[in-house]
Write a structure and sequence with these properties.
2 domains; 385 residues; alpha/beta; Dimethylsulfoxide Reductase, domain 2; 18% strand; 16 helices; 5-stranded parallel sheet; Rossmann fold; single chain
Length: 385
């Protein structure tokens, strides 16, 4: 294979400048490099695999299709079509984390900006319960902290002020201008205090954040010309939703601040977009003549789980469910599943479209022919049902 440029699918940043030259990978971060290099190898017959999956789906009474966030939009569409044929539930990782933020975004209830806008304009950045240096390693260097933008020519040195708010001082917390420690148990309280302070109230201190620090943070927020909040996985769980919404409304009403999420998998946003278009919900849905909301995977069982490029056993105990895994790389699920099939990896031997974490559609090239594609297998399953 000659030198070629591709899109990295190691995370939802979908970096488009990654170069592969034989066994060497350039421009990718460590996470992306390891993801692109890690492959499962095994000869596979598409028709045999599809027939086995179709037979198991026919026998199952409570089938669940899980994962999907590392598939192309085409493959996700086939998976949803299969669910409609057999009356299956469909779920993804946003049932466990980040679901509230994605739902707000897709419903148009959160003021959002693109990664390119952040690079060109953001002068104050709040990293809210996230560590992009670990989860999205090129986020700071390409978009949020270091780069010179159209309006921020002096970048992190003079033009950007950055604050990391998290329960522990992560890699990101050690790099930015200011780290503020807020325990997970105090997230709701902190959102309320910050919202009230922005609205004009005298703030109360938290366990680790002094009153003066909150006052200084509010001053920084109010002085921002183009502020942005980078939202992490731990930022908005069920118990934090109401105080977060109050903070969001205050920021949108009284400041310039917008929001930008961090989704873990390459096509997390694309999956949720397609699921919402069909059902009105981004996760935990079931087809029974029509799409309805169902119990999320962690609250209800299944007698058959089709794990599509996910890792369901890493995230949840699955009791006595029979598990069929389709994955391009080794995971806990591929090792313990009843049937495990190595499939093509998006960005290497499978192409297609994904939706980047900020909503931009990115076309993924196929570099070579090797393993069977997930889209081919799912299309064949659909034809057998």
């Amino acid at each position: 294979m000659s030198t070629i440029t591709t899109v990295c699918t190691g995370c939802a940043l979908a970096c488009e400048d990654v170069v592969i030259d034989g066994a060497d990978i350039f421009n990718a971060c460590r996470k992306g490099t390891e993801y692109l290099k890690a492959n499962l190898k095994k000869e596979l017959d598409v028709e045999e695999v599809a027939e086995l999956i179709a037979q198991e789906l026919d026998k199952a009474s409570t089938p669940l299709i899980y994962g999907l966030s590392n598939l192309s939009q085409e493959a996700v569409g086939y998976a949803l079509d299969i669910a409609e044929k057999v009356g299956a539930r469909v779920d993804n990782e946003t049932s466990l984390y980040h679901g509230h933020v994605l739902e707000l975004l897709l419903r148009g209830e959160l003021r959002e900006v693109s990664l390119d806008w952040i690079k060109d304009n953001a002068d104050v950045i709040l990293y809210l319960f996230c560590d992009p240096l670990s989860t999205h390693p090129r986020h700071l260097s390409m978009y949020s902290y270091y780069p010179r933008g159209e309006k921020r020519q002096q970048g992190w040195e003079k033009d950007r002020k950055t604050v990391c708010i998290d329960a522990h001082q992560s890699s990101c917390g050690r790099v930015v201008n200011k780290y503020m420690k807020v325990e997970y148990a105090e997230i709701s309280k902190f959102y309320t205090i910050l919202s009230d302070a922005i609205a004009g109230s005298v703030p109360r201190p938290t366990k680790y954040v002094e009153q003066k620090e909150i006052i200084n943070l509010v001053r920084l927020i109010k002085r921002a010309e183009d502020g942005v909040v980078i939202i992490g996985n731990e930022a908005v769980k069920d118990e934090e939703l109401k105080p977060f919404l109050e903070l969001k409304e205050t920021l949108e009403l009284k400041t310039t601040f917008s929001f930008s999420p961090l989704f873990l998998n390459a096509n997390s946003r694309g999956v949720c977009t397609l699921m919402m278009e069909r059902s009105g919900s981004i996760n935990a849905i079931k087809y029974d003549g029509e799409w309805t909301k169902s119990e999320p995977i962690y609250k209800s069982g299944a007698d058959l789980i089709i794990d599509l490029c996910g890792d369901v056993l890493f995230e949840l105990p699955c009791n006595d469910a029979k598990i069929i895994s389709l994955s391009p790389h080794p995971t806990l699920t591929t090792k313990l599943a009843h049937h495990s099939f190595p499939v093509a990896k998006l960005g290497l031997d499978e192409g297609g479209e994904i939706v980047r974490l900020d909503g931009k559609t990115v076309k993924i090239p196929q570099l070579y022919e090797d393993r069977p594609k997930s889209s081919e297998i799912l299309k064949e399953v659909l034809s057998l049902l």
